[in-house]
Each structure stands twice: as C-alpha cells, then as structure tokens.
Amino acid sequence: MNINQPATLNPEYFDGVYRASDDPWAFASSPYERAKYADTLATLPRPHYGRAFEIGCSIGVLTAQLASRCGHLLSVDVSEAALAQARQRCAALPQVELRKLQVPNEFPHGKFDLILLSEVGYYWSPADLARAADQLLAALPPGGQLLLVHWTPVVPDYPQTGDEVHDFFLQKTGPQGPLKHLHGHRADKYRLDLFEASGL
C-alpha cells in the first residue's frame, strides 16, 4: 500500500460531526440541497425501481423522497446518530430498510436495479473507491443503473474530490466497458452522472 495515499475517513469522523450538529450539512433546510435532490430524482429515467441501494443516507432526507420510486430501498450509513434520525423520518415508509454498514468493508448481498452514491465517494481513499466500484458493478444486473452525485469544490479533509470520483467511473465506460454513460451534467457546485450496467 502507498503510505502517501490519503486514508478513507473513518466512522469516528462522522460520529464527531453528528455530535456537533444534528444536521451538519443542512440536508433538511438548505435550498441548495432541496434543488440538488430534485435534480437527482428528475435524472432517474424510470418511474419505479424494484430494488434500490442508497450508500450514505445520512439523516434520510433524500431517502424519504426516493422511497416512492422503489419497491424496496436499502439505505445505509456509517453513523448510528444519523441513522436514528433517518429511522424517524422514514418510519411510515415500509419499503425502506435502514442499516449501519461501512462500504467497501461491508456490502449487502444480491442485485440492485438502482444504486445511488450521493456525496460519499470522496470520503474513500483511491484504493477503497476501486474496491467499492468492483462491488457496485458486481451488484448491478445488465440494465441496472448507478447514479453518482457529488460536491465538486475541494475539501481539505476529504481524500478525493467529486470530480476524481466521477472520472474514475467514466473510465469504465466505452464499447467494451462494464458501464454505459447515459447522462451527465454540472450544476454550480456539484456534478451528476448516470450510468447503466452494460452486461459485458
């Protein structure tokens, strides 16, 4: 392992963040987040996904909005404090399953029609991003979709930038690649890319 490689942020980092604030990124109140969630949901081309997986659900604001499009939605986070709020927010949504899970060290079994990686990839080291990408690709059946949404400005605490995460997945597209790039665009401070498993 390259000792100079930045390390993945550990669960203790996020526990500290949630101790300092119930909603440290203002997911529930920020007009920026509200607009980004609307953009995220509008990008999904299908009205319904039978089995979906959301990595890094935090306090469940986007989870609750995505749930109506899913037969079953598994949403995970590394912080129990965040999940406690998500459970309250999604209590009336029986199709939502909330679980404490640390990807890529842990990964659920089975296939998913949709995987959402929103504001998570830049917390991983390059090595862990590569591990997670292999897991995500293995969990997508042909035609399964992967949606990435990430903040693009540099954050000194984070091992990578949002652009580095998206560019890593874009390298897996092409005629013989495991992914097809269906859509991508940039907003003021985030970018969004939608992929589909090619079955190759």
Q: What can you see in these coordinates?
A:
This protein has 6 helices and 7 strands. The chain has 200 residues and is α/β, with parallel strands linked by helices. It has a 7-stranded mixed sheet with strand order 3-2-1-4-5-7-6, with helices on both faces. 39% of the residues are buried.
Summarize the structure.
By secondary structure, the protein is α/β, with parallel strands linked by helices. It has helices spanning 11-20, 31-43, 61-66, 80-89, 126-139, 162-170; strands at residues 49-55, 70-77, 96-100, 114-118, 145-151, 179-186, 190-197.
List the helices and strands and how they pair.
Blueprint: H1 11-20, H2 31-43, E1 49-55, H3 61-66, E2 70-77, H4 80-89, E3 96-100, E4 114-118, H5 126-139, E5 145-151, H6 162-170, E6 179-186, E7 190-197
Parallel strand pairs: 1-2, 1-4, 2-3, 4-5
Antiparallel strand pairs: 5-7, 6-7
